[in-house]
Amino acid sequence: MNKNETKHEPAEAIRQTYAPIAMAMGITMIFWGILAHPYGIGIWAMSAGGAGMLAWALYSWMREICHEWSVQDES
């Protein structure tokens, strides 16, 4: 190996997660419930479910990021 050549290790693949998709669905559900309310459709439960999904997705995504950082720090 030449002294100018460097050895590149392949980067680890990023783990896939459903949290961003769940977060987008939660936001959509929240706004669907808000927008449907003035038309006499009482679906505030849709907004509540969306808020719950949004909170779960945010928690899940942040937990995954913290886990990845802790694994990276151990290396």
Question: Span between N and C termini?
Answer: 26 Å
Q: Spell the H/E element sequence.
A: HH
Q: Major beta sheet, specifics?
A: none
Specify the helix fraction band. Answer: 55-70%
Shape: elongated
The number of distinct helices, counting runs of at least 4 residues, comes to 2
Number of distinct beta strands = 0
Any low-confidence stretches, pLDDT <50, length ≥5?
A: none
Roughly what fraction of the amino acids lie in strands? under 5%
Q: Report the radius of gyration as a whole number of Å.
A: 21 Å
Structural classification:
mainly alpha
Mean pLDDT: 82
Q: What is the count of structural domains?
A: 1
Give keywords.
75 residues, mainly alpha, elongated
Describe the structure.
The protein is mostly helical and 75 residues long. The protein has one domain. The chain is built from two helices and no strands. The longest helix has 31 residues. It starts with 18 loop residues before the first helix and ends with a helix. The mean pLDDT is 82.
Give the arrangement of secondary structure elements.
Layout: H1 19-36, H2 44-74
In short:
The chain has helices spanning 19-36, 44-74. The protein has 75 residues and is mostly helical.
